[in-house]
Amino acid sequence: MAERKPLSKKIRFEVFKRDNFTCQYCGHKAPEYILEVDHIDPVKHKGDNDPFNLITSCFDCNRGKADRKLSDTAVLDKQRQKIEDLNIRRQQLEMLLAWKDELISNKNMEANYICNYISNKLESKFKPTESWRININSYLSKLGHDRLIEMIDDVFFKISFSMSKYGITEKTVEIFWSILRAKIIGETSTPQETKKYLHGILYNKFQYTAYRCDVETMIDRIINSPAFNENRTEIISAAKKITSVTDFLKKMNEFIAPINDRPSK
Ligand SMILES: [Zn+2]
Question: How far apart are the CA of 2 and the centre of ligand 1, in A?
């Protein structure tokens, strides 16, 4: 006994923690009971402070004053179970991390696929770059794959004429990205941002002071209408094309009108 190495504070703490600060023989818990660390196999006392041989015991159990309800194998089984549980948890954590890596690589694959799609549309004259990938990754998280492809097709449709007339140049690539960005802002901006944007368009076009009240009422109506979420991009592009304030009021009414015509429930 004299040769026994004293247990470090750290090991004792680890054993208590593992055993939930509960005597593994009788179930007494800290702080009501003073807990100690017991050596399960006394033969191993000689200097062996292997944590698997250590167990939380209350003062009485440790001195054999209380009946030890659990046999030593029961205690060992319990510990083995705990280690198995920890192993399972560790394996699950590893699986979770692997799954997360897989998701990230799926996302990168998706972005790569879309970048190649764009490159093909540019007749492979421009190869995907890191900044393309960064843009696409951020657009993907906002819109999802299908909607993004739709928008890319839209943009290429818009610039197809100038592409066939002037060829595919640096300028084409620049225009492609700037139109795509504008479309995505239109689709994902908040009502407040869209409101500001519509006011900006109208004011730049017509300095609408005379109709200010009508225009502002209409913008508020459109922003608050159910049509807004469904047709946000269409509303913005319609607003860009209008030729007069009256035209604007008429077009915006068309977006709201079908809703007003719905039969009331
Ligand atoms: Zn006890």
Answer: 24
